Amino acid sequence: MAGNPKVSVCISSYNHERYLRHALDSVLAQTYTDFEVIVVDDGSQDDSLALLELYAAQHPAIKVFTHPQHANKGISITTNLAIEHARGEYIAFLGSDDAWCADKLERQLPVLESDAKVGLIYSLTYLMDSEGRQAPERHGSDCAASPGAMALMIRRNRIHGLTTIVRRCCLDSVGLFDESLVYNDWELWLRIMAHWKVAFVAAPLAVYRVHGSNTSVGIEPAVHLRHCLAATLALRRKAAMIKGLLDEPRMQALVDLQAAYTHFFLHQGTQAAQTLSRAFDTDATLRTDARGLARWLDAQIHDGIDVLPPELTGHDFSEWVLSKLPAIVGTATAKRMARYFSALSSARAAGTCYAADAPRATRLALKSFLTDPRQIAKRDLLVIPLKTIVGRRMVKRIGKLKKKLHSDRTELGS
């Protein structure tokens, strides 16, 4: 390769001799070849370093580094060191126990090359076990297509690090991984999203290995919550410095609301109340945005942190928020929010139970309409009582007739 490679693949390696060949071979097998591999061994106690040096001797694209005195510094410091040694325009990440699909770089690079506003691209993943047996299910979700991608990511991390490629200039601008955080990938993706678009490839391009000693699998729920809270609070502290979308009062308020949510489930009632109240001080428009608040609360319950300690599952976060709102936004706005939230809850329950109990689903849908007439605009909700009252066959026939009428009009127009 002449000059610097286009892509630098950064690997933090620690005690994964058993899986390391698979990881390295999956990179070397890429159909896109303009890359280098920067591996930093994090003081491994097995023969990982010897294996890495063997690969480096055989493959000039692989460069191996260690910490002074072969110290163990942790994955964040180790990954940051790999980035510092990287020469590529794009930075990709891979765990030393994971692997890539052969067309990963080939599928993702053209997207980055075609749109300079995209700072990060990611994809779906497969899972495999310690023996390399791959499961067919696909994991991950697309937040890039949503106009509210940043808000979705504030609720929880949707980006699998081993699938990402990031522009080097993004890291130069917003900084590397925060070495004080455990969930620093989530926090870094949000810093990048404050200034750049995110792109998504709707295909599994990497394979995450589950082997019993993963850092993010099987973690105690309360520990998970504390890691989430630390990342959220760090992002909030940096918001004024990061700027971009995080300079907007509404986005900062969403981070405050997320912190309140996590404080609540950690039994930190005082901090939860303080951060909930701060959200309304940060963004004064929240005080009159009853519908927006209701949508946030509904989404948070169903799409927030999805792992909670068993002793906390009975706690009703929505009731707690609604009980605090009168003192923050006034009784009138609090009542409107409660009404809109009730309508959303009824609508969601109607969709959930329709297949098993159509009459109950119809009652819930009608309740949602009566509570908030704007819910009638939701076609998926409106069709529930229509199918029950008119009949499913008739609704299907009406749908076919509408399609035929549309087709006839199109033909006449042509």
Could you explain how this protein is built, in words?
The protein is of the alpha/beta class and 414 residues long. The protein contains 16 helices and eight strands. The chain has helices at 17-28, 48-58, 75-85, 104-114, 149-155, 168-174, 184-193, 221-242, 249-265, 269-282, 290-303, 317-329, 331-353, 358-371, 379-390, 392-413, and strands at residues 7-13, 35-41, 62-66, 90-95, 99-100, 118-128, 165-167, 197-209. Helix 1 (17-28) packs parallel to helix 2 (48-58). It is globular. The model has no long low-confidence stretch (mean pLDDT 90).
Blueprint of the fold:
Blueprint: E1 7-13, H1 17-28, E2 35-41, H2 48-58, E3 62-66, H3 75-85, E4 90-95, E5 99-100, H4 104-114, E6 118-128, H5 149-155, E7 165-167, H6 168-174, H7 184-193, E8 197-209, H8 221-242, H9 249-265, H10 269-282, H11 290-303, H12 317-329, H13 331-353, H14 358-371, H15 379-390, H16 392-413
Parallel strand pairs: 1-2, 1-4, 2-3, 6-8
Antiparallel strand pairs: 4-7, 5-8, 6-7
